[in-house]
Amino acid sequence: MMAVHGATLCLDTHVDIPWPNTPDPHSRTSRQVDYPKMRAGGLNAVVFIAYTQQGKRDEAGHAAAGAKAEAMLRAIAATAGRDGTRLVTNADELEAAFAAKELAVMLGVENGYAMGHDLSRLKLWRDLGACYVTVTHDGHNDLADAARFKPDLGDAPTCHGGLSELGRQAVREMNRVGLMVDASHTSKSSMMQAAELSRAPIVVTHTCCKTLCDHPRNIDDEQMDMLRQVGGLMQITAVPAFVRAPEAPGQRSQATVKDIADHVDYAVNRIGLDHVGLSSDFDGGGGVEGWKDASETANLSLELLRRGYSARELGLLWSGNFMRLMRITQRLAD
Ligand SMILES: [Zn+2]
Q: Domains along the chain?
């Protein structure tokens, strides 16, 4: 089974980075994902995230978030391109990197807040190599309502009732420039509206099944059915609180790789294997017993193989489905 894992293109679609003091991923670091840990665990590719926390929705807040996201994209990209690593911006390049036995570094932007009201930022991010944009983080922004609102920022439970007009324009622009639309962190209404509006199927890059674990960041059966309907994808993630409710309120969740596999099984049974994938949210809250960092990635493959998933199915879960969405997104872009 280790041989099957080794032959599988394993892509983790959501990994944060420490910022602004980012340890060099070419060396052994305290990060959950660095290049030595990826090699040790047979993790071939990672989408590293330029993340901005939700702040005030004013000109200064938008400008600061925009500058930060751009700086992070440039900094992550600068770590690739040497010593067996390369920056990858589409599915063909990802497969080529894997064939060449090089680690693939991919880019994503988390929180459309960093766009402010300037749609041209989306093209800039795509040109810098980003493959997706997460429409919101926690807290509503000017694009859409989030699943978790922030009273300290003046949020009411709902703001736009889903996507705003600017949010709809942003989804259309992401389609046009070839960025995947990520509905992680958004409210259910935002997610459902984005799924219907987007010409390319949407992705939820780090989430789990609400039916198995009732957490506001997880998606329910109706949302999962919508993903199947539009050809989209949910990437089951390793955030303990999303995976398994704590034994008692206030306690820490004791989630393991088996719990993650339970979410995969549930999602595959409900919406089909073509609509399910994997991510960790490492260095952003992810990490369970058995998959604490990238060096332990094989454990998740082994658990899935033990449950009867074939080598082909394992490949679809780890990267094949996500590459399909990347290709559709590129084909539909102008
Ligand atoms: Zn996130």
A: 2-332 (3.20.20.140)
Distance CA 267, CA 223 (A): 11
Q: Decide: 264 and 305 in contact? Cβ < 8 Å.
A: no
At residue 226, the 3 state secondary structure works out as helix
Helices 188-197, 221-230: axis angle to 10 degrees equals 10
Q: Please enumerate in sequence order all residues whose Cβ is within 8 A of that of 250, keeping only pairs 6 or more positions apart, or say none.
A: none
Residue 267, CA atoms < 13 Å, CB-side half-sphere? 34
Q: What is the pLDDT of residues 193-237, one digit of tens each?
A: 999 999 999 999 999 999 999 999 999 999 999 999 999 999 999
For residue 308, the CA-to-ligand 1 centroid distance in Å is 30
Contact between 238 and 286 (Cβ < 8 Å): yes
Distance in Å, CA 246 to ligand 1 centroid: 20
Q: What is the pLDDT of residues 77-103, one digit of tens each?
A: 999 999 999 999 999 999 999 999 999
Token pair belonging to 307: 């449950």
Query: Taking the CA of residue 327 as centre, how many other CA atoms within 13 Å lie in the half-sphere pointing to its CB?
Result: 11
Q: How far is CA 177 from CA 119, 165, 170, in A?
A: 11, 18, 10
Distance in Å, CA 319 to ligand 1 centroid: 19
Ligand 1 center–CA 234 separation, angstroms: 13
